[in-house]
Amino acid sequence: MIKLGTLRRKDITRCVELEKRLFVGDDPWSARAFHSELDAGNYYLSAYDEDVLIGYAGLAVVGRPGDFEASVHTVGVDPAYQGQGIGTALLRGLLTRADELNAPVFLEVRTDNDRAVGLYERHGFTRIGLRKGYYQPSGADAYTMKREARAGQEVS
After folding, report:
1. Among candidate residues 105, 124, 8, 9, the one with its CA nearest the CA of residue 60
2. Could you give phi then psi for residue 115, rounded to 5 degrees?
3. Which residues does the UniProt record annotate as the domain N-acetyltransferase (predicted)?
4. Which sequence spans correspond to the domains of the chain?
5. What is the per-residue pLDDT across 8-26, written as a single tens digit (0 to 9) for each?
6. Percentage of the chain surpassing pLDDT 70?
7. How many Å apart are CA 10 and CA 58, to the nearest integer?
8. Average pLDDT, whole number, for the chain?
């Protein structure tokens, strides 16, 4: 049974392992990057199967009450567990937090990651821009996507 919870510092080593598998050819996050995200107070979720971390996702929020903006920083799921709704569950958890704050949500996603683009579009994100060479060192392009604030609305 998959359980969602708050990402803990003890999860970071496993996050780094997954990053290296998920983002081959680009610059996967280091332990230091994950620690910085948690130190900054960003909202991170974990997905566990029994006692093994199989996914994680993070959301940063900036601004003041009534004028917040959120940004999805990462969503990662162990390749062995992809296609089972875990990424969807993690994203919905992040969007629930953004909705509590009435914050629009932004993100970047590789233009060649059709599965992720589809996931985001199913959750109300639209493409608002293109960042050439965004991912390094591969030079892959990214779409910038946005989902409008949805305070009090049901997440589909």
Report:
1. 105
2. -60, -45
3. 2-150
4. 2-107
5. 999 999 999 999 999 988 8
6. 96
7. 16
8. 94
Fill in the amino acid letter for 105.
V
Q: Are 96 and 154 in contact (CB under 8 A)?
A: no
Write out the CATH class of domain 2-107. alpha beta
What pLDDT band is residue 3 in, cutting at 50, 70 and 90? Answer: very high
Sheet holding 126-131, edge to edge: 2-6, 43-49, 52-62, 69-77, 105-110, 142-147, 126-131
Q: Is 154 helix (H, G, I), strand (E, B) or coil?
A: coil
Q: Which two tokens stand for residue 95?
A: 């969007």
SS3 58: strand
| 84, amino acid identity | Q
Residue whose entry in the numeric block shows the structure tokens 């821009």? 129
* Long-range contacts, stretch 37-43, CB < 8 angstroms, 24+ apart: 37/73, 38/7, 38/9, 42/73, 43/94, 43/97
pLDDT for 66 equals 86
